[in-house]
Amino acid sequence: MHLEEFSEGNSFLHRADPRIKILVFCLFSVLCAVSSGIKTPLIYLSYSLILLVISQVRFKPLISRLFFANFFIIFIWLFIPLTYPGNPHIEIGSIRISLEGIKYALSITIKCNAIIIATISLLSTSSVFSLAHAMLHLKMPKKLVTLFFLFYRYITVIHDEYLKIKRAAALRGFVPATNLHTYKTYAYIVGGMLIKSLERAEEIYKAMLCRGFNGYFPLFEHFQIKKSDIIFGVISTAIIILVWVES
């Protein structure tokens, strides 16, 4: 599992200061999420698509991420148009689909995709270490940043351990099925992962102590903000706020 797939690149957003990108993303995501109607979310979606073009991230993994995200949005379309109060737009027997419900589901879909694309364009173009470093500079709680960094960094380690145990079970002839043997095997896999995670955690903790970890990660290098970062931050902030004011 590779969680930093989009951080490999050399576009303007890959080189931009992560502190500026986090601030722009926070403002964008909040105002986009609370916007109403169709027009304003569409403008925010257009802005996030421009960021996507600038970021030059790879197309195939991008489509994969958007597909999984939109899979859950399907459930919104299954329920909201049928249950949202309003005038019925389509009637099929006893089923009534309201026009207001369709507009509301469409608005949610556009906002979700705008925020997901902005997340990939702004945050995923930086490594997790750079994001944690930037969060500390933005005076976020150190314990929260440490938890974020350790979770994001070592979730791949736990996933690798899961794959090893799964391969070992497959080599012994295990074939998943709907029976008690399968449930017991998966219980053993979860138990094995817990033991492996504990062992790896002790090894990682010792390695972190050797690197100077004393509850927090020491910072030896700092960001150098450039003129292009300031221009990007000012223009992005102006666009995001102007869209909100004009809505």
UniProtKB/TrEMBL annotation:
How does this chain sit within the bilayer? Multi-pass membrane protein
The UniProt entry's GO CC annotations, sorted and at most eight, read: ATP-binding cassette (ABC) transporter complex
**Source organism superkingdom:** Bacteria
Membrane spanning segments where? 20-36, 66-84, 104-132, 228-245
Which organism is this entry from? Thermodesulfovibrio aggregans
Q: Where in the cell is it found?
A: Cell membrane
Keyword Membrane: yes or no?
yes
**Biological process, per Gene Ontology:** cobalt ion transport
What taxonomic ancestry is recorded?
Bacteria, Pseudomonadati, Nitrospirota, Thermodesulfovibrionia, Thermodesulfovibrionales
**Which InterPro entries does its entry note?**
ABC/ECF_trnsptr_transmembrane (IPR003339), ECF_CbiQ (IPR012809), ECF_transporter_component (IPR051611)
**Key words of the record:** Cell membrane, Membrane, Transmembrane, Transmembrane helix
This protein is called Cobalt/nickel transport system permease protein
Record keywords: Membrane included? Answer: yes
